[in-house]
Amino acid sequence: MTPLTAPPAADAIDSLRAIGREFHGRGWSLGTSSNYSVILGREPLELLVTASGKDKSALGRDDFVRVDAQGRVIDGSDRRSSAETLLHCTIAELIPSVGAVLHTHSPWGTILSGADLPPGAAAGSLRIAGYEMLKGLEGVTTHDTHEDVPIFANTQDMRELSARIRERFAGLDFAAPGRPPLHGFLIARHGLYTWGRDLAEARRHIEIYEFLFECVALARTLPAAATALRQPHQQ
Questions:
Q1: Assigned domain for 234 exists
Q2: Mean pLDDT of 216-231
Q3: In terms of pLDDT, which residue wins out, 8 or 17?
Q4: What domain range is 24 assigned to?
Q5: CA distance to 9, 35, 108, per residue, from 213 (Å)
């Protein structure tokens, strides 16, 4: 998966503002939740990231910051980057083909990421199998497959979470031709991180994952609901 040429900062800002409006409208980035980034340069690593505490439905042109590989603001402004900026930097560093990283807080992703996980417990993964829409993920060419989405226990310590992500991704070859080893991950009771060679691919991955999360959640709940409806009413 070859990275595409990085867009100019002004173009990236316009595109991210549009993403924010869309994702807010679809219920994936409500309130001040979520954060988005575009990689502007690789040598050295530089990202454009949403500033902290911004309503994603109304992002202004000044609601973004430029940061280095450690997540430090380097554009001379006094704005703070998102609290989770370091995770964007970690993903960009570990996966050289990445051109954009998107993070959402949808209801389905939030529920599924913690459905079988006691608070504070070590996390596992969510398996999604057999759905035609899996083919919307980069490199997937058949419905007859599965995607294991890693789940990480939540924490407010981004350095500790970044270290766990690095440990879990160690040994994965994201540069190999064909299907990438994974396309995203979940943070328990928090939300989804996914990425792409450019913002369009990252946006598509968000849309595909969010559709699949809803399918998985409904498939789990509808049989139970149908069974309950078939039970005789108690007088």
A1: no
A2: 71
A3: 17
A4: 9-221
A5: 32, 19, 6
Q: What is the pLDDT of residue 100?
A: 97
Contact 165, 185 (CB under 8 A): yes
Q: H-helix or E-strand containing 13?
A: helix 9-25
Length of the chain: 235
Tokens of 150: 């890693």
What is the residue whose two structure tokens read 């973004």?
64
Yes or no: say if 35 and 50 are a contact pair by the CB < 8 Å rule.
Answer: yes
Cα–Cα dist 119/17, whole Å = 34
Could you tell me the pLDDT band of residue 141, with boundaries at 50, 70 and 90? very high
**CATH code of residue 79:** 3.40.225.10
Instruction: Judge whether 227 lies within some domain.
Output: no
Tokens of 232: 């005789």
Domain count of the fold of the chain:
1
CA nearest to 72, candidates 50, 95, 46: 46
- In the chain, DSSP finds a helix count (H) and a strand count (E) of 5, 8
In a domain, 228, yes or no: no
Summarised one tens digit per residue, pLDDT across range 92-110 is 999 999 999 999 999 999 9
Full 3-state SS string of 126-183: EEEECCHHHHHCCCCCCCCCEEEEEEECCCCCHHHHHHHHHHHHCCCCCCCCCCCCCC
User: Which ranges constitute the DSSP H helices of 27-152?
Assistant: 85-94, 107-114
Q: How many CB atoms lie within 10 A of CB 229?
A: 7
* Residue given tokens 């807080």 in the structure block: 105
